[in-house]
Design brief:
Chains A, B: It comes from Micavibrio aeruginosavorus (strain ARL-13). The structure is a homodimer of 304-residue chains. The first copy, chain A, is 69% helix and 1% strand. With 304 residues, chain A is mostly helical. Chain A has one domain (10-301): Farnesyl Diphosphate Synthase. Chain A is globular, with a radius of gyration of 18 Å. The termini of chain A are close together. At the A-B interface, helix 2, helix 6, helix 7 and helix 8 of A face helix 2, helix 6, helix 7 and helix 8 of B.
């Protein structure tokens, strides 16, 4: 079974489902089925994106936009863009030359369902589409907002973000990393895209600099907590519950938070990071940011 | 030996070398060497970009910008961005799962010099960097110009451009294509990025719509002529002269202009397309576009 948002507080759960559905509709509209000869590319793009998934990043983006009264319809395109980048990174990371993962979200990974060439191209095309969607005049956004979103997303995804993080991850198969390097790796691989999601909501809402910063810091701490719990789940959970192979880090000889500090310390660390992430949100009064705080707790408690 | 601009008229040759050098400097500045643990990613990005190459697309961009009096320093960043996208597409196309090419520009292709995972990531990072470079506030361009360039580049590179073209190309290994489909494939795979290069110069120069259109049409015809001559060179030339394996299309069973219409007809077609491409430039008076016309002739006569 594919993992779906669950184990979340009922109110949070409902909001996550709602936003997930809304963003999926936008994604489907942006990835129409095709009867062109190159249709397999479009199918693989849909397959890599619409196969379940918790839609955490779109949720962060939409909730952060909501803090500033941004119209949800406006935020949905940007939310789809961040999910395209996330999906592209999973499609490429799963390739045989990379993490060689046959399962993703409980189903064959994209290169298994199609073939390697199609998966490489579908990833490339999803990444490109993210920039097209953000920059498009159809968004009716101020060009200043559009170009800032593009630039932030590019910085979060490039050699100093996602790509650099994945490179480090691969190097980690042959080399032992200390805690500092593991943290830097995960900040690049997970934190930066989550920070983009939160910051994008603030950019759409023309938020003040301190509020932007607070949301970024929230995302960085939460991203790290997310990764620490991922490492714990990788040793504790089953492929059935996770929807992907487990125990792969140890198998690949990768240094993780768990291998470096042990399970108990890792759990304490995740707890500490979640508390810290929530504290950044104190800048928002009257419980405005309560949903994002609940999301942080959910990340800690999730079982998949 | 890596192919370099040659067989061009002496004046054109000199200008191509000059622009090639200037753009290479910009590329090197945008891809600094790194002493971070993930340095192999940066090295592979440099390797995939700075390994010779004719720099045709940067040349088109710079020449088109020059038509409208755009400062060359301004145009160089955009020229580097289009070359990043071109380089990324070559790095990914050469992968074993795609065209499985061991040689590129007379040297081992990126996945041979590094490894497959690094090549995939270097391609991803180059594509992302192109969007970062175009959108960056450092360009000092009007946000409207920046976001338009990003959107045009994304459209030229995504599922309806480069990625779609490469998908069609792979499908062509298993399926015979008629001339219409081959032309559409090549328009996507080669024409769109060249059209972006020419149009970007016009966007930087805030050119009139008819002039923009003329430059795009020039690029589409020239791109097709380029591809037809490429197909001819693939059957006529040697790996030594081309700096890459030849005869690969026939080996892969791909339908090409040569396999579909024969060498003589293909040659006549290329000639016709080059004449047609030059005619689009009649809108520019006083010989202003003569260099672009000479470039068209060069494409026809090149031997590598």
């Amino acid at each position: 079974m594919a993992p779906s948002p669950r184990d979340a507080a009922p109110g949070l759960q409902e909001q996550m489902n709602e936003i997930s559905e809304a963003v999926n509709k936008t994604i489907m509209r942006l990835l129409p089925e095709s009867d062109l000869p190159e249709a397999p590319l479009f199918e693989a793009m849909r397959y890599g994106t619409l196969n379940g998934g918790k839609r955490l990043r779109p949720f962060m983006l939409m909730q952060s936009a909501k803090l500033f009264g941004v119209d949800m319809a406006r935020a949905r395109r940007a939310a789809a863009a961040v999910e395209f980048v996330h999906a592209y990174s999973l499609v490429h990371d799963d390739l045989p030359a990379m993490d060689n993962a046959d399962l993703r979200r409980g189903k064959p990974s994209t290169h298994k369902a199609y073939d390697e060439a199609t998966a490489i191209l579908a990833g490339d095309a999803l990444l490109t589409l993210a920039f097209e969607v953000l920059s498009d005049v159809e968004t009716h956004e101020d060009p200043r907002v559009r170009v800032e979103l593009v630039n932030l997303l590019a910085k979060a995804s490039g050699p100093h973000g996602l790509c650099g993080g994945q490179m480090l991850d691969l190097i980690g198969e042959k080399q032992e990393f200390d805690l500092g390097t593991i943290s830097r790796l995960q900040r690049m691989k997970t934190g930066k895209l989550m920070a983009f999601a939160c910051e994008a909501g603030a950019v759409l809402g023309k938020a003040s600099e301190p509020m932007r910063k607070a949301l970024c810091n929230y995302a960085y701490d939460l991203g790290l907590a997310f990764q620490v719990t991922d490492d714990i789940l990788d040793v504790e959970s089953s492929p059935e519950a996770m929807g992907k192979d487990t125990g792969k880090d140890a198998q690949a000889g990768k240094s993780t938070f768990v291998s470096t500090m042990g399970k108990d310390q890792a759990r304490a660390r995740a707890q500490m990071l979640v508390e810290q992430s929530k504290r950044h949100l104190h800048i928002f009064d009257n419980g405005r940011a309560d949903t994002l705080k609940e999301l942080a707790d959910y990340v800690l408690q999730r079982r998949a």
